């Protein structure tokens, strides 16, 4: 990953990959008739200085791609941002990212541009995706002036939508990981959490395929229907 981003930055600064103009970046793809067996899905996780998107900031990004029912370990994103000005005293014990790491991280603008190029406009999945979406959109807007709307899907909805009878003992990533007996190497590490989320996503996609959910549009509609049912049951 480090060598890839170095090469990418060198190409971009040499004028070989376009400019910072958002119009030169890949356009977000909308859910349509793309077959789930063919399309590329990005599973993402962020580490932040806190839980409040209004005042806290992104400090690390981890992601991995799924394509053809396979997690491609060679198609990953794992970077700590260079943000030495941030106060991480309240959260360093959770994510383990200290002041030295933030000082030695990658320049935020370069890292975000590389992320957008790497994602290539593909749909993004995350566990409790509203959290990651708010933080990432805020950071992209503040650092790059980037405001394009990507397709996001919540794996916290995906799992109960396809495994409604699962007795997980809770709704968190840890509960589902334990239910499927996944080995999570390091919790609250962006890349590790993204990989665990991708493994859960694969389980749901396999179940979806057996249930006749074949396209990205089908999956998006299934999640929309699940959320509507969940909201109805609150009343």
Account of the protein in words:
- By secondary structure, the protein is α/β, with parallel strands linked by helices.
- Helices cover 44% and strands 17% of the residues.
- The chain is built from nine helices and six strands; from the N terminus they run H-E-E-E-H-H-E-H-E-H-E-H-H-H-H.
- It has helices spanning 2-13, 92-95, 99-104, 108-119, 129-144, 155-162, 173-179, 190-210, 216-232; strands spanning 40-48, 58-67, 70-82, 106-107, 124-126, 152-154.
- The protein has a six-stranded mixed sheet with strand order 4-3-2-1-5-6.
- Strand 5, helix 5 (129-144) and strand 6 (152-154) form a beta-alpha-beta unit.
- The radius of gyration is 18 Å and the shape is globular.
- The N and C termini lie far apart (47 Å).
- The relative contact order is 0.18.
């Amino acid at each position: 990953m480090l060598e890839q981003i170095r090469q990418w930055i060198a190409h971009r600064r040499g004028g070989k990959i376009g400019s910072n103009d958002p119009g030169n970046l890949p356009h977000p793809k909308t859910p349509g008739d793309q077959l789930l067996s063919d399309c590329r899905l990005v599973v993402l996780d962020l580490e932040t200085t806190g839980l409040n998107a209004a005042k806290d900031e992104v400090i690390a990004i981890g992601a991995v791609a799924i394509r053809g029912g396979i997690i491609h370990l060679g198609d990953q994103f794992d970077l700590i941002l260079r943000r030495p000005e941030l106060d991480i005293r309240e959260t360093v014990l959770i994510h383990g990212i200290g002041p030295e790491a933030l000082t030695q991280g990658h320049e935020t603008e370069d890292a975000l541009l590389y992320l957008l190029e790497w994602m290539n406009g593909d749909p993004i999945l995350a566990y409790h995706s509203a959290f990651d979406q708010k933080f990432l959109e805020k950071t992209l807007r503040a650092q790059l002036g980037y405001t394009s709307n990507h397709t996001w899907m919540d794996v916290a909805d995906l799992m109960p939508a396809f495994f409604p009878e699962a007795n997980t003992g809770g709704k968190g990533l840890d509960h589902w990981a334990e239910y499927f007996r996944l080995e999570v190497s390091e919790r609250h590490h962006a890349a590790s959490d993204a990989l665990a989320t991708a493994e859960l996503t694969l389980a749901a996609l396999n179940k979806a395929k057996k249930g006749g959910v074949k396209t990205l549009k089908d999956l998006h509609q299934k999640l929309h229907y699940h959320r509507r049912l969940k909201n109805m049951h609150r009343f």
